[in-house]
Amino acid sequence: xxxxxxxxxxxxxxxxxxxxxxxxxxxxxxxxxxxxxxxxxxxxxxxxxxxxxxxxxxxxxxxxxxxxxxxxxxxxxxxxxxxxxxxxxxxxxxxxxxxxxxxxxxxxxxxxxxxxxxxxxxxxxxxxxxxxxxxxxxxxxxxxxxxxxxxxxxxxxxxxxxxxxxxxxxxxxxxxxxxxxxxxxxxxxxxxxxxxxxxxxxxxxxxxxxxxxxxxxxxxxxxxxxxxxxxxxxxxxxxxxxxxxxxxxxxxxxxxxxxxxxxxxxxxxxxxxxxxxxxxxxxxxxxxxxxxxxxxxxxxxxxxxxxxxxxxxxxxxxxxxxxxxxxxxxxxxxxxxxxxxxxxxxxxxxxxxxxxxxxxxxxxxxxxxxxxxxxxxxxxxxxxxxxxxxxxxxxxxxxxxxxxxxxxxxxxxx
Length: 414
Prior knowledge:
By secondary structure, this protein is an alpha/beta fold. 31% of the residues lie in helices and 20% in strands. It has 13 helices and 19 strands. The strands form three sheets. The chain has an eleven-stranded mixed β-sheet with strand order 4-3-2-10-11-12-16-13-17-18-19, with helices on both faces. A six-stranded mixed β-sheet has the order 1-5-6-7-9-8, with no helix packed on it. The longest helix has 17 residues, at 323-339.
């Protein structure tokens, strides 16, 4: 998009906020499809709500095409979804329209090839086909319907910025889509301005509330596996985050968090579940943990372990404690528990704790000092050896309420 181009009439969408029960805004998902699915589940999006996406659903992440297909399918089903044109959508349309080498390279420098990969994975077509206006007709047509600016009597919705000195009809399109300069100090429009484009630089990667009722909701999703949505009538914030710290050989943290009180679970050691290309690859244990967290109405779940070595075969656990690995695990556990001070604990290590002496005598005893004041639960009855059952145990009924676990008494008997 060239600088100086005044916004076209068709690029402004006017809405009446009273037409909708709730209005949610999200932004800059960059191919993080699973976060979006968790978000609409968390807010229980209904057909009398409005969802406004402030732009940039593509590039960087691995499932851009899937996101656009999902929006399109939901619109056809009767959901109210409006998607603003972001600078990344602008780069796609420009690259396909001009086929100019410099335009394509500019887009590629901004991780555009991940969107092509997503297109190929879903459609079975080739990279060359992405630039074919007939073979890529759905995406081109869909993105071409996106407005650059949405206006209501109370709010202004835009991807990057808004010039408060100009009327909506006099805005420069490039400024709306690409600008990163301060405009909020001049917002005397009397309206709230919601935008994305510039990732939050706050330490906790949360919403940035600027002066004069200007709000930026770009959290740097592609860097932090985290997104947010705001319901603008109630001002309620909904954070969705995937947590993962591991390298294939070790795993310290894995989780899906949708609020301040996820269920924090302790197993023996991690198996195969992990996050690859911003997609959660679950195993049977995590499938059960997910179910329990949903049934008990927790804000998602976090899986921690007494020992951080990745193996699906307990007999392969280190015969001698790796002190460095243990210390790192304790550090990461403390970080999680400090971040979620109100979370309950689910003990679910089963009889596997008997595999190595250090699991009880070193790992659990140190972890106990961190969690001893928390409310702890276990699944079903304790094992014959008095251990909290593993979720995959045939005697662990995950459809029943969790049982209180007296971890203080349990540790006394070690």
